[in-house]
Amino acid sequence: MSQSDNNAWLEQLPEAFIAYRDGRKLDEVECIVPDLNGMSRGKAMPVNRFSPDKPIFLPISIFYQTITGEDVEMDIENQWAETDMVLKADMSTAMAVPWAKQPTLQVIHDLLDQNGEPISCAPRNVLKRVIAMYREHGWQPVVAPELEFYLTQPNVDPNDPVEPPVGRTGRSGTALQSYSMSAVDEYGPVIDTIYDYAEDAGLHIDSVIQEDGAGQVEFNLSHGDPLLLADQVFYFKRIIKEAALNNGMFATFMAKPMRDQPGSAMHIHQSVVDIKTGQNIFSTAEGEETDAFRWFIGGTQKYLIQVMPFIAPYVNSYRRFESETNSSAPTNMAWGYDNRATGLRVPNAGAQDRRLENRVVGVDTNPYLSIAASLICGYLGMVKQVEPDVPVEGEVEDKYQIPTTLEESLRIFARAEDIHDALGEDFCKLFAAVKKEEWRQFHREISPWEREYLLLNV
Predict the structure, then answer these.
(1) Which stretches of 136-290 are assigned E, i.e. beta strand?
(2) pTM exceeding the 0.70 threshold for the entire prediction
(3) Tens-digit pLDDT profile for residues 306-320
Protein backbone atom coordinates (compact mmCIF):
# COMPACT_ATOMS: atom_id res chain seq x y z
CA MET A 1 0.00 0.00 0.00
CA SER A 2 1.37 3.41 -0.95
CA GLN A 3 1.98 6.25 1.49
CA SER A 4 -0.86 8.19 -0.15
CA ASP A 5 -3.24 5.27 0.50
CA ASN A 6 -2.12 5.17 4.14
CA ASN A 7 -2.97 8.86 4.51
CA ALA A 8 -6.33 8.75 2.72
CA TRP A 9 -8.00 9.33 6.09
CA LEU A 10 -6.56 12.84 6.11
CA GLU A 11 -8.99 13.82 3.36
CA GLN A 12 -11.98 12.64 5.39
CA LEU A 13 -11.48 14.67 8.56
CA PRO A 14 -14.32 16.90 9.83
CA GLU A 15 -14.78 20.36 8.33
CA ALA A 16 -14.08 21.98 11.71
CA PHE A 17 -10.64 20.38 11.81
CA ILE A 18 -9.87 21.36 8.22
CA ALA A 19 -10.78 24.96 9.07
CA TYR A 20 -8.63 24.83 12.23
CA ARG A 21 -5.71 23.34 10.30
CA ASP A 22 -5.98 26.08 7.67
CA GLY A 23 -3.48 24.48 5.31
CA ARG A 24 -0.85 23.97 7.99
CA LYS A 25 1.04 20.72 8.28
CA LEU A 26 -0.54 18.28 10.72
CA ASP A 27 2.04 17.56 13.40
CA GLU A 28 0.76 14.88 15.76
CA VAL A 29 -2.11 12.51 16.52
CA GLU A 30 -3.23 11.78 20.09
CA CYS A 31 -4.76 8.31 20.40
CA ILE A 32 -6.83 8.54 23.57
CA VAL A 33 -9.21 6.48 25.71
CA PRO A 34 -11.21 7.49 28.80
CA ASP A 35 -10.13 5.70 31.98
CA LEU A 36 -12.42 4.84 34.91
CA ASN A 37 -12.24 8.46 36.13
CA GLY A 38 -13.06 9.90 32.71
CA MET A 39 -9.53 11.21 32.18
CA SER A 40 -7.52 10.80 28.96
CA ARG A 41 -5.04 7.96 28.65
CA GLY A 42 -3.25 6.92 25.46
CA LYS A 43 -0.35 7.59 23.15
CA ALA A 44 0.75 10.45 20.93
CA MET A 45 2.60 9.88 17.68
CA PRO A 46 3.78 11.74 14.57
CA VAL A 47 1.11 11.88 11.91
CA ASN A 48 3.13 9.66 9.54
CA ARG A 49 3.03 6.86 12.14
CA PHE A 50 -0.74 6.94 12.56
CA SER A 51 -3.35 5.06 10.57
CA PRO A 52 -6.92 4.21 11.63
CA ASP A 53 -6.18 0.64 10.56
CA LYS A 54 -2.87 0.31 12.37
CA PRO A 55 -3.08 -1.55 15.71
CA ILE A 56 -2.13 0.38 18.84
CA PHE A 57 -1.84 -1.26 22.24
CA LEU A 58 -2.22 -0.32 25.91
CA PRO A 59 -2.04 -2.57 28.99
CA ILE A 60 -5.38 -3.39 30.59
CA SER A 61 -3.87 -2.43 33.96
CA ILE A 62 -4.80 1.22 33.33
CA PHE A 63 -8.19 0.15 34.73
CA TYR A 64 -6.64 -1.29 37.89
CA GLN A 65 -5.56 2.09 39.27
CA THR A 66 -7.15 4.52 41.70
CA ILE A 67 -7.43 8.26 41.10
CA THR A 68 -4.05 8.58 42.85
CA GLY A 69 -2.43 6.23 40.33
CA GLU A 70 -1.89 3.44 42.85
CA ASP A 71 -2.51 -0.15 41.75
CA VAL A 72 -5.31 -2.21 43.29
CA GLU A 73 -4.91 -5.92 43.93
CA MET A 74 -8.03 -7.77 42.80
CA ASP A 75 -9.21 -11.33 42.37
CA ILE A 76 -8.41 -11.40 38.66
CA GLU A 77 -6.56 -14.29 37.06
CA ASN A 78 -3.10 -13.19 35.87
CA GLN A 79 -3.94 -9.60 36.83
CA TRP A 80 -0.37 -8.35 36.48
CA ALA A 81 0.45 -10.17 33.26
CA GLU A 82 -0.07 -6.74 31.64
CA THR A 83 -2.27 -8.11 28.86
CA ASP A 84 -2.50 -5.68 25.94
CA MET A 85 -5.76 -4.12 24.79
CA VAL A 86 -6.17 -3.25 21.12
CA LEU A 87 -7.08 0.37 20.40
CA LYS A 88 -9.43 0.87 17.45
CA ALA A 89 -9.80 4.44 16.22
CA ASP A 90 -13.33 5.86 16.07
CA MET A 91 -12.71 8.48 13.39
CA SER A 92 -16.13 10.03 14.00
CA THR A 93 -14.58 11.47 17.18
CA ALA A 94 -11.58 13.06 15.43
CA MET A 95 -11.12 16.72 16.34
CA ALA A 96 -8.51 19.40 16.95
CA VAL A 97 -6.37 19.92 20.02
CA PRO A 98 -6.78 23.72 19.90
CA TRP A 99 -4.25 24.55 22.64
CA ALA A 100 -1.42 22.65 20.96
CA LYS A 101 1.39 24.78 19.48
CA GLN A 102 1.26 22.89 16.17
CA PRO A 103 -1.85 21.46 14.44
CA THR A 104 -2.72 18.33 16.39
CA LEU A 105 -5.51 15.79 16.05
CA GLN A 106 -7.10 13.80 18.88
CA VAL A 107 -9.11 10.64 18.30
CA ILE A 108 -11.03 8.56 20.84
CA HIS A 109 -10.36 4.84 20.48
CA ASP A 110 -12.50 1.85 21.36
CA LEU A 111 -10.87 -0.95 23.34
CA LEU A 112 -10.92 -4.58 22.23
CA ASP A 113 -9.21 -7.77 23.34
CA GLN A 114 -6.93 -9.79 21.08
CA ASN A 115 -9.98 -11.62 19.69
CA GLY A 116 -11.72 -8.41 18.72
CA GLU A 117 -14.25 -8.50 21.56
CA PRO A 118 -15.03 -5.29 23.52
CA ILE A 119 -13.14 -4.86 26.80
CA SER A 120 -15.90 -5.10 29.40
CA CYS A 121 -14.33 -2.66 31.86
CA ALA A 122 -13.81 0.14 29.31
CA PRO A 123 -16.28 2.94 30.21
CA ARG A 124 -17.17 3.68 26.58
CA ASN A 125 -18.04 0.01 26.08
CA VAL A 126 -20.21 0.03 29.21
CA LEU A 127 -22.29 2.86 27.76
CA LYS A 128 -22.46 1.10 24.38
CA ARG A 129 -23.77 -1.99 26.17
CA VAL A 130 -26.61 0.01 27.73
CA ILE A 131 -27.51 1.70 24.43
CA ALA A 132 -27.61 -1.72 22.75
CA MET A 133 -30.09 -2.93 25.39
CA TYR A 134 -32.40 -0.06 24.48
CA ARG A 135 -32.08 -0.78 20.77
CA GLU A 136 -33.10 -4.41 21.28
CA HIS A 137 -36.53 -2.97 22.13
CA GLY A 138 -36.52 -0.53 19.23
CA TRP A 139 -35.67 2.40 21.50
CA GLN A 140 -33.09 5.16 21.16
CA PRO A 141 -32.23 7.03 24.38
CA VAL A 142 -31.60 10.77 24.11
CA VAL A 143 -29.72 12.85 26.67
CA ALA A 144 -28.70 16.46 27.24
CA PRO A 145 -26.07 17.09 29.95
CA GLU A 146 -25.57 20.34 31.85
CA LEU A 147 -22.02 20.90 33.14
CA GLU A 148 -21.36 22.97 36.24
CA PHE A 149 -17.78 23.78 37.17
CA TYR A 150 -15.67 26.33 39.03
CA LEU A 151 -13.04 28.72 37.82
CA THR A 152 -10.58 29.28 40.66
CA GLN A 153 -7.30 30.91 41.50
CA PRO A 154 -4.38 28.54 40.84
CA ASN A 155 -4.07 26.21 43.81
CA VAL A 156 -0.44 25.07 43.89
CA ASP A 157 -0.39 23.83 47.49
CA PRO A 158 -3.06 21.18 48.24
CA ASN A 159 -2.92 22.21 51.92
CA ASP A 160 -4.32 25.64 51.02
CA PRO A 161 -8.08 26.15 50.54
CA VAL A 162 -9.32 26.72 47.00
CA GLU A 163 -10.11 30.40 46.38
CA PRO A 164 -12.49 32.03 43.86
CA PRO A 165 -10.81 33.64 40.84
CA VAL A 166 -10.03 37.30 40.34
CA GLY A 167 -11.94 38.68 37.36
CA ARG A 168 -11.68 41.80 35.25
CA THR A 169 -12.72 44.06 38.17
CA GLY A 170 -9.71 42.90 40.18
CA ARG A 171 -11.99 41.48 42.85
CA SER A 172 -12.30 37.87 43.92
CA GLY A 173 -15.54 36.27 42.81
CA THR A 174 -18.62 36.39 45.01
CA ALA A 175 -21.52 33.98 45.32
CA LEU A 176 -25.29 34.47 44.92
CA GLN A 177 -24.96 35.78 41.36
CA SER A 178 -26.92 33.06 39.55
CA TYR A 179 -27.94 33.97 35.99
CA SER A 180 -26.03 37.24 36.24
CA MET A 181 -24.66 38.33 32.85
CA SER A 182 -22.20 40.66 34.58
CA ALA A 183 -20.81 37.71 36.51
CA VAL A 184 -20.30 35.78 33.26
CA ASP A 185 -18.59 38.82 31.74
CA GLU A 186 -16.28 38.97 34.78
CA TYR A 187 -14.46 35.94 33.37
CA GLY A 188 -14.99 36.87 29.73
CA PRO A 189 -11.49 35.95 28.46
CA VAL A 190 -11.80 32.39 29.78
CA ILE A 191 -15.32 31.98 28.37
CA ASP A 192 -14.17 33.39 25.02
CA THR A 193 -11.25 30.96 24.93
CA ILE A 194 -13.59 28.05 25.67
CA TYR A 195 -15.85 29.13 22.80
CA ASP A 196 -12.84 29.45 20.47
CA TYR A 197 -11.51 26.02 21.43
CA ALA A 198 -14.98 24.50 21.05
CA GLU A 199 -15.34 26.01 17.58
CA ASP A 200 -11.94 24.65 16.52
CA ALA A 201 -12.95 21.23 17.83
CA GLY A 202 -16.35 21.32 16.12
CA LEU A 203 -18.24 21.23 19.42
CA HIS A 204 -21.35 23.27 20.16
CA ILE A 205 -22.47 24.92 23.40
CA ASP A 206 -26.21 25.44 23.78
CA SER A 207 -25.95 28.12 26.49
CA VAL A 208 -23.76 29.42 29.31
CA ILE A 209 -24.92 30.81 32.65
CA GLN A 210 -23.44 31.96 35.95
CA GLU A 211 -24.39 29.58 38.77
CA ASP A 212 -24.77 30.30 42.50
CA GLY A 213 -21.15 29.82 43.49
CA ALA A 214 -18.28 32.30 43.26
CA GLY A 215 -16.72 31.61 39.87
CA GLN A 216 -19.21 28.80 39.17
CA VAL A 217 -20.30 28.48 35.54
CA GLU A 218 -22.70 26.15 33.76
CA PHE A 219 -22.55 25.04 30.12
CA ASN A 220 -25.58 23.33 28.58
CA LEU A 221 -25.12 20.93 25.66
CA SER A 222 -27.69 20.14 22.97
CA HIS A 223 -29.60 16.86 23.23
CA GLY A 224 -28.53 13.82 21.25
CA ASP A 225 -27.21 10.26 21.23
CA PRO A 226 -25.77 9.30 24.66
CA LEU A 227 -22.42 8.12 23.25
CA LEU A 228 -22.01 11.32 21.25
CA LEU A 229 -22.84 13.46 24.28
CA ALA A 230 -20.54 11.47 26.59
CA ASP A 231 -17.73 11.99 24.06
CA GLN A 232 -18.51 15.71 24.05
CA VAL A 233 -18.44 15.95 27.86
CA PHE A 234 -15.14 14.03 27.84
CA TYR A 235 -13.69 16.52 25.35
CA PHE A 236 -15.25 19.61 26.97
CA LYS A 237 -13.71 18.89 30.36
CA ARG A 238 -10.27 18.92 28.79
CA ILE A 239 -11.04 22.03 26.74
CA ILE A 240 -12.33 23.96 29.76
CA LYS A 241 -9.30 23.07 31.89
CA GLU A 242 -6.87 24.11 29.16
CA ALA A 243 -8.74 27.36 28.48
CA ALA A 244 -8.58 28.26 32.17
CA LEU A 245 -4.86 27.45 32.40
CA ASN A 246 -4.15 29.64 29.39
CA ASN A 247 -5.86 32.50 31.23
CA GLY A 248 -4.04 32.08 34.55
CA MET A 249 -6.82 30.16 36.31
CA PHE A 250 -7.77 26.62 37.24
CA ALA A 251 -11.02 25.00 36.16
CA THR A 252 -12.22 22.22 38.44
CA PHE A 253 -14.93 19.60 38.08
CA MET A 254 -14.55 18.57 41.71
CA ALA A 255 -18.03 18.12 43.19
CA LYS A 256 -17.36 20.42 46.19
CA PRO A 257 -14.10 22.36 45.85
CA MET A 258 -14.88 25.08 48.42
CA ARG A 259 -16.43 24.56 51.85
CA ASP A 260 -18.83 27.51 51.82
CA GLN A 261 -19.79 27.39 48.16
CA PRO A 262 -22.37 25.19 46.42
CA GLY A 263 -21.34 21.95 44.77
CA SER A 264 -21.27 21.26 41.03
CA ALA A 265 -23.65 18.87 39.27
CA MET A 266 -24.05 17.35 35.85
CA HIS A 267 -27.81 17.31 35.39
CA ILE A 268 -28.85 14.82 32.70
CA HIS A 269 -32.08 15.32 30.73
CA GLN A 270 -33.31 11.97 29.40
CA SER A 271 -35.94 10.89 26.92
CA VAL A 272 -36.46 7.87 24.66
CA VAL A 273 -37.64 7.81 21.05
CA ASP A 274 -38.98 4.99 18.91
CA ILE A 275 -36.28 4.17 16.35
CA LYS A 276 -38.79 3.49 13.54
CA THR A 277 -41.04 6.50 14.04
CA GLY A 278 -38.77 8.99 15.79
CA GLN A 279 -41.57 9.69 18.28
CA ASN A 280 -40.95 10.21 21.97
CA ILE A 281 -42.24 7.06 23.68
CA PHE A 282 -42.94 9.09 26.82
CA SER A 283 -45.94 10.71 25.08
CA THR A 284 -49.05 9.33 23.39
CA ALA A 285 -50.29 10.56 20.03
CA GLU A 286 -52.65 12.80 22.00
CA GLY A 287 -49.75 14.25 24.00
CA GLU A 288 -50.47 12.45 27.27
CA GLU A 289 -47.96 10.64 29.46
CA THR A 290 -47.38 6.98 28.63
CA ASP A 291 -46.87 3.93 30.82
CA ALA A 292 -43.26 3.90 29.57
CA PHE A 293 -42.69 7.38 31.02
CA ARG A 294 -44.20 6.39 34.34
CA TRP A 295 -42.11 3.19 34.47
CA PHE A 296 -38.95 5.09 33.48
CA ILE A 297 -39.48 7.33 36.49
CA GLY A 298 -40.27 4.35 38.70
CA GLY A 299 -37.11 2.52 37.65
CA THR A 300 -35.01 5.60 38.22
CA GLN A 301 -36.48 6.01 41.70
CA LYS A 302 -35.87 2.35 42.54
CA TYR A 303 -32.43 1.78 41.06
CA LEU A 304 -30.63 5.14 41.20
CA ILE A 305 -29.72 4.58 44.84
CA GLN A 306 -28.00 1.35 43.71
CA VAL A 307 -25.75 3.08 41.16
CA MET A 308 -24.58 5.92 43.42
CA PRO A 309 -20.88 4.95 43.05
CA PHE A 310 -21.17 5.89 39.36
CA ILE A 311 -22.96 9.21 39.93
CA ALA A 312 -21.11 10.17 43.14
CA PRO A 313 -17.80 8.29 42.80
CA TYR A 314 -15.51 9.98 45.36
CA VAL A 315 -15.49 10.88 49.04
CA ASN A 316 -15.79 14.54 48.03
CA SER A 317 -18.88 13.78 45.91
CA TYR A 318 -20.98 13.43 49.05
CA ARG A 319 -19.92 16.81 50.42
CA ARG A 320 -22.09 18.29 47.67
CA PHE A 321 -25.11 16.81 49.46
CA GLU A 322 -24.10 17.96 52.95
CA SER A 323 -25.63 21.19 54.25
CA GLU A 324 -25.59 22.85 50.87
CA THR A 325 -25.11 26.62 51.10
CA ASN A 326 -27.26 28.69 48.75
CA SER A 327 -27.91 25.69 46.52
CA SER A 328 -30.79 23.60 45.24
CA ALA A 329 -28.68 20.42 45.08
CA PRO A 330 -31.10 17.55 45.72
CA THR A 331 -30.44 14.96 48.42
CA ASN A 332 -33.29 12.65 47.49
CA MET A 333 -34.77 10.26 44.91
CA ALA A 334 -38.20 11.89 44.86
CA TRP A 335 -39.73 13.11 41.61
CA GLY A 336 -42.01 16.00 40.76
CA TYR A 337 -43.23 18.32 38.04
CA ASP A 338 -40.99 21.38 37.67
CA ASN A 339 -39.83 20.92 41.25
CA ARG A 340 -36.13 21.60 41.80
CA ALA A 341 -36.31 20.28 45.36
CA THR A 342 -36.61 16.77 43.90
CA GLY A 343 -33.71 14.69 42.62
CA LEU A 344 -35.82 13.70 39.61
CA ARG A 345 -37.58 16.58 37.87
CA VAL A 346 -40.03 16.61 34.97
CA PRO A 347 -39.44 19.97 33.25
CA ASN A 348 -42.18 21.95 31.56
CA ALA A 349 -42.11 20.77 27.93
CA GLY A 350 -44.26 19.78 24.99
CA ALA A 351 -45.21 16.18 24.24
CA GLN A 352 -42.26 15.47 21.91
CA ASP A 353 -39.83 16.98 24.45
CA ARG A 354 -41.23 15.17 27.50
CA ARG A 355 -38.23 14.06 29.58
CA LEU A 356 -36.89 13.31 33.03
CA GLU A 357 -34.05 15.39 34.47
CA ASN A 358 -31.68 13.52 36.80
CA ARG A 359 -30.37 16.21 39.14
CA VAL A 360 -28.43 13.92 41.50
CA VAL A 361 -25.41 13.27 39.22
CA GLY A 362 -22.20 15.13 40.09
CA VAL A 363 -19.97 16.76 37.50
CA ASP A 364 -16.99 14.85 38.92
CA THR A 365 -18.23 11.65 37.30
CA ASN A 366 -16.97 9.74 34.29
CA PRO A 367 -19.64 10.83 31.75
CA TYR A 368 -19.78 7.43 30.08
CA LEU A 369 -20.46 5.67 33.36
CA SER A 370 -22.84 8.22 34.92
CA ILE A 371 -24.93 8.44 31.74
CA ALA A 372 -24.94 4.64 31.44
CA ALA A 373 -25.94 4.29 35.10
CA SER A 374 -28.72 6.84 34.81
CA LEU A 375 -30.10 5.27 31.63
CA ILE A 376 -29.98 1.68 32.93
CA CYS A 377 -32.21 2.68 35.85
CA GLY A 378 -34.90 3.98 33.52
CA TYR A 379 -34.48 0.98 31.22
CA LEU A 380 -34.99 -1.51 34.06
CA GLY A 381 -38.03 0.45 35.14
CA MET A 382 -39.60 0.12 31.69
CA VAL A 383 -38.85 -3.58 31.16
CA LYS A 384 -39.87 -4.50 34.73
CA GLN A 385 -42.82 -2.05 34.75
CA VAL A 386 -41.82 -0.37 38.01
CA GLU A 387 -44.42 2.05 39.32
CA PRO A 388 -43.15 5.35 40.77
CA ASP A 389 -44.29 6.99 43.96
CA VAL A 390 -46.68 9.90 43.69
CA PRO A 391 -45.07 13.13 42.48
CA VAL A 392 -43.91 15.48 45.21
CA GLU A 393 -45.05 19.08 45.45
CA GLY A 394 -42.92 21.44 47.50
CA GLU A 395 -40.34 20.14 49.98
CA VAL A 396 -39.32 16.48 50.08
CA GLU A 397 -39.89 13.94 52.88
CA ASP A 398 -37.02 12.09 54.54
CA LYS A 399 -38.02 8.71 53.10
CA TYR A 400 -36.44 9.62 49.76
CA GLN A 401 -32.98 10.44 51.14
CA ILE A 402 -29.85 9.25 49.34
CA PRO A 403 -26.72 7.65 50.86
CA THR A 404 -24.47 10.16 52.59
CA THR A 405 -21.08 8.46 52.17
CA LEU A 406 -19.20 6.55 49.51
CA GLU A 407 -18.88 3.62 51.92
CA GLU A 408 -22.65 3.39 52.31
CA SER A 409 -23.15 3.63 48.55
CA LEU A 410 -20.68 0.81 47.92
CA ARG A 411 -22.52 -1.42 50.41
CA ILE A 412 -25.78 -0.86 48.55
CA PHE A 413 -24.09 -1.33 45.17
CA ALA A 414 -22.66 -4.69 46.29
CA ARG A 415 -26.22 -6.05 46.63
CA ALA A 416 -27.53 -4.58 43.34
CA GLU A 417 -27.99 -7.80 41.37
CA ASP A 418 -30.07 -6.31 38.54
CA ILE A 419 -27.47 -3.57 38.02
CA HIS A 420 -24.59 -6.06 38.01
CA ASP A 421 -26.41 -8.23 35.46
CA ALA A 422 -27.08 -5.22 33.23
CA LEU A 423 -23.64 -3.58 33.35
CA GLY A 424 -21.58 -6.77 33.67
CA GLU A 425 -20.57 -8.57 36.86
CA ASP A 426 -16.82 -8.43 36.18
CA PHE A 427 -16.90 -4.70 35.47
CA CYS A 428 -18.97 -3.96 38.58
CA LYS A 429 -16.60 -5.92 40.81
CA LEU A 430 -13.56 -4.17 39.34
CA PHE A 431 -15.11 -0.72 39.72
CA ALA A 432 -16.15 -1.42 43.32
CA ALA A 433 -12.67 -2.66 44.21
CA VAL A 434 -11.07 0.53 42.88
CA LYS A 435 -13.55 2.73 44.75
CA LYS A 436 -13.06 0.82 48.01
CA GLU A 437 -9.30 1.35 47.75
CA GLU A 438 -9.79 5.08 47.10
CA TRP A 439 -12.01 5.28 50.18
CA ARG A 440 -9.32 3.47 52.21
CA GLN A 441 -6.59 5.81 50.94
CA PHE A 442 -8.62 8.87 51.87
CA HIS A 443 -9.21 7.69 55.43
CA ARG A 444 -5.50 7.11 55.96
CA GLU A 445 -4.93 10.87 55.67
CA ILE A 446 -4.97 13.31 58.61
CA SER A 447 -6.93 16.43 57.69
CA PRO A 448 -6.16 20.08 58.62
CA TRP A 449 -9.38 20.07 60.72
CA GLU A 450 -8.02 17.22 62.84
CA ARG A 451 -4.69 18.96 63.31
CA GLU A 452 -6.33 22.27 64.19
CA TYR A 453 -8.92 21.04 66.69
CA LEU A 454 -7.54 17.77 68.03
CA LEU A 455 -3.77 18.16 68.14
CA LEU A 456 -3.69 20.21 71.36
CA ASN A 457 -7.28 19.97 72.61
CA VAL A 458 -7.73 16.27 73.29
Answers:
(1) 139-152, 207-210, 216-220, 250-252, 266-274
(2) yes
(3) 999 999 999 999 999
